[in-house]
């Protein structure tokens, strides 16, 4: 949605990229840092006057999710109320050149789901608005503590309104799947242009991948092997203690 400042000229073009297209999760994986960078190409090479802001978003795959609330009853924590969400991003991180509320209007931010407050999390059934806000806030807070949801204002560096770069943290608990890194060019409270997104694939490799495949596709075999290995380890431990 071009702003009036660009109404009489062609829209700028974004040339984005990332430091890694594939991130492999192994046994010693402790997290990673993804660099998102690129260039802004202006019509006829003329950089317009005024400030240009940039926001970069990295979204993980969406999945149905059940959020349960725990309550303490007689000194014991038990599951109480719960809510089902049709889909929720397994990972969401946004970095911007300035705080979002200073560079974009609320309506546009809601359309593009810019910011943790504007993530579209729809419940499967009817629920009171107050209850929905409570569970939604709980989900966002939990994922923020786990490093799976991140909002980083003032962390996109823009050089001469042409080059930009930002770094986003990938925690060790990040799920597998196809991630999309998107760049948005913002001016006068509106998104001038958004790129088509760069795909980043996060997957397990080696022994971790084998375990995942067995557990998901061959659950009976996986369960049998787990029992056999447990019995074998117990037997070996018994022999060791018997020799002491």
| Number of discrete helical segments | 5
- The residue fraction in helices comes out at 25-40%
How much strand content do the residues show? 35-45%
**Shape designation:** globular
**What is the CATH superfamily label of the largest domain?**
Macroglobulin (MG2) domain
Question: What is the name of the CATH topology of the largest domain?
Answer: Immunoglobulin-like
Low-pLDDT segments, ≥5 res? 1-8
The topology string of helices and strands comes to: EEEEEEEHHHEEEEEEHH
Q: What's the mean pLDDT score?
A: 83
Assign the CATH class of the largest domain: Mainly Beta
Q: Give the distance, in angstroms, between the N- and C-terminal Cα atoms.
A: 76 Å
Note the main attributes of this structure.
244 residues, alpha+beta, Immunoglobulin-like, 2 domains, seven-stranded mixed β-sheet, four-stranded antiparallel β-sheet, 5 helices, 13 strands, globular, disordered N terminus
């Amino acid at each position: 949605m071009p702003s009036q400042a660009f109404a009489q000229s062609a829209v700028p073009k974004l040339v984005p990229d990332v430091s890694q297209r594939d991130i492999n999760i192994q046994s010693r994986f402790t997290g990673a840092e993804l660099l998102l960078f690129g260039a802004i190409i202006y019509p006829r090479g003329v950089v317009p006057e005024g400030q240009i802001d940039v926001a970069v978003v990295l979204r993980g795959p969406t999945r149905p999710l059940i959020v349960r609330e725990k309550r303490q009853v007689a000194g014991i924590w038990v599951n109480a109320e719960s809510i089902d969400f049709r889909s929720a991003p397994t990972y969401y991180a946004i970095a911007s050149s300035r705080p979002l509320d200073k560079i974009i209007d609320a309506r546009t931010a809601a359309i593009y789901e810019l910011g943790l407050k504007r993530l579209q999390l729809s419940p499967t059934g009817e629920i009171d608005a107050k209850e929905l806000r409570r569970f939604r806030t709980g989900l966002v807070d939990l994922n923020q503590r786990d490093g799976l949801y991140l909002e980083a204002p003032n962390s996109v560096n823009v050089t001469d309104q042409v080059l930009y770069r930002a770094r986003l943290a990938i925690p060790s608990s990040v799920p597998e799947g196809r991630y999309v890194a998107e760049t948005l060019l913002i001016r006068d409270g509106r998104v001038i242009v958004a790129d088509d997104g760069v795909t980043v694939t996060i997957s397990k490799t080696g022994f971790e991948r084998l375990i995942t495949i067995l557990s998901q596709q061959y659950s009976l075999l996986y369960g049998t092997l787990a029992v056999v290995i447990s019995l074998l380890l117990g037997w070996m431990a018994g022999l060791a203690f018997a020799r002491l």
